[in-house]
Write a structure and sequence with these properties.
By secondary structure, this protein is α+β, with helices and mostly antiparallel strands. The chain has one domain. 32% of the residues lie in helices and 20% in strands. α3 packs antiparallel against α4. The longest helix is centred in the last third of the chain and has 24 residues. Pfam families: SEC-C. InterPro entries: SEC_C_motif (IPR004027).
Length: 192
């Protein structure tokens, strides 16, 4: 099971996430842009072409039971349109992006934060999300570097919860939902 890009974000889900403005914006990576380096990519683009930084969120889903909101920077062009200039192997074409200027307040050492939102109320899921949040805090506090020993500890703790998380994902995935495994197929034509 892995995080995956939801094909659509319903209005009820957006409300739960506290998102009022969701846009689909083009992904047009610059030739010299680097993966996982959106703020530097945007800054470089603006120096060459003008525009400004627009902060916001992009979304991925774990097993139809949790949403990861990843802070992201895109270019706001002089005509006020938005474009993502960062390459991403999972997101091409149009990117679901929720502008949010408050993201700027949470940047640490030029690293952007992540938020985790449970879609169901479950103790195991809360613990699992807590581990992910703890790992993200360590990333932000340590200039993006996490020691291998810390990563192994996070993986070990998460692996103890994985059977319960997988069971929840199966339980809360309908036959016509995207499969909890992250394949992109409907559940009925995949693991369901």
């Amino acid at each position: 099971m892995q995080y995956f890009d939801l094909s659509e974000l319903s209005s009820s889900l957006l409300k739960k996430l506290g998102v009022e403005d969701l846009r689909k914006i083009p992904v047009q990576p610059e030739p010299d842009a680097k993966f996982l380096n959106c703020l530097d990519n945007v800054t470089s683009y603006i120096e060459k072409n003008g525009g400004s930084v627009q902060f916001g969120w992009i979304f991925s889903c774990l097993g139809n039971i949790s949403i990861k909101m990843t802070a992201h920077a895109v270019v706001k062009t002089p005509d006020n349109s938005l474009v993502c200039v960062t390459p991403n192997e999972y997101r091409t074409g149009l990117l679901k992006f929720a502008p949010d200027c408050s993201v700027e307040n949470f940047i640490q050492n030029n690293f952007l934060p992540t938020k985790f939102v449970p879609l169901i109320d479950d103790q195991s899921l809360s613990e699992y999300i807590g581990i992910e949040a703890e790992q993200d805090k360590l990333r932000l506090d340590n200039l993006g570097i996490i020691a291998q020993s810390d990563l192994e500890q996070f993986k070990m703790r998460a692996s103890l919860l994985y059977p319960a998380i997988l069971s929840l994902a199966k339980k809360y995935t309908g036959r016509n939902d995207q499969c909890y495994c992250g394949s992109g197929n409907k559940s009925k034509k995949c693991c369901g």
